[in-house]
Design brief:
The complex is a heterodimer of chains A (114) and B (115). With 114 residues, chain A is mostly beta strands. Chain A has no helices and twelve strands. The chains are: A mainly beta (114), B mainly beta (115).
Chain lengths: 114, 115
């Protein structure tokens, strides 16, 4: 069965510092990959997605993610974090063959310190 | 584009009553909609998948008679929590997927509190 691992439950970053959130997946074929962000009491907002092609994907709010097939990873990055980026971040995958349901990681809570 | 709305955003009801939550895709047609439940500090738990015009597919452990799902059109799905009890209190989130690709767009969620 496919799985998604976000090894960091919490991460604290100083405002203005760079950020990298880790995501690893376990699946036979390369799945479609997504990053979502959830602010407290809100739904999930799509940050970016990877289906194929260029392995460096640009998203909204200054985020980017890099797909590395050899490492089965899809890490999310941002060069300079803003206080408003504090939220829960979810990595998710879906198999490329036919429509299926998303498999989510457990999420990483990002805290931004002044 | 790809906006999903939910109504109501929060609801308080008495134990034993039923509550209906609406999920709408505002600017696209959603052939498939999903209903999730989220417990505090937890990831999303998929409850059911609904395709327009057909019966919903429920995940294991989700009572289909308690959580009634109707996907009557390509832009609207409803979740009715029947005979709600305090343990049904939770954050319910819907998502919608287009026929174009595998991307799910999520609604803002509905906070249900059953007293």
């Amino acid at each position: 069965a496919q799985s998604v691992t976000q090894p960091d439950i919490h991460i604290t970053v100083s405002e203005g510092a760079s950020l990298e959130l880790r995501c690893n997946y376990s699946y036979g074929a390369t799945p479609y990959l997504f990053w979502y962000v959830q602010s407290p009491g809100q739904g999930l907002q799509l940050l970016l997605k990877y289906f194929s092609g260029d392995t460096l994907v640009q998203g909204i709010k200054g985020f980017e993610a890099e797909f590395k097939r050899s490492q089965s990873s899809f890490n999310l990055r941002k060069p300079s974090v803003h206080w408003s980026d504090a939220a829960e971040y979810f990595c998710a995958v879906v198999p490329p063959s036919g429509y299926s349901t998303l498999t989510f990681g457990k999420g990483t809570m990002l805290l931004v310190s002044p | 584009g790809a906006v999903v709305s939910q109504h109501p955003s929060r609801v308080i009801c008495k134990s034993g009553t039923s509550v209906k939550i609406e999920c709408r895709s505002l600017d696209f047609q959603a052939t498939t909609m999903f209903w999730y439940r989220q417990f505090p500090k937890k990831s999303l738990m998929l409850m059911a998948t609904s395709n327009e015009g057909s019966k919903a597919t429920y995940e294991q452990g989700v009572e289909k008679d308690k959580f009634l799902i109707n996907h009557a059109s390509l832009t609207l799905s409803t979740l009715t929590v029947t005979s709600a009890h305090p343990e049904d209190s939770s954050f319910y989130i819907c998502s919608a997927r287009t026929s174009r690709d595998e991307t799910q767009y999520f609604g803002p969620g509905t906070r249900l509190l059953v007293l």
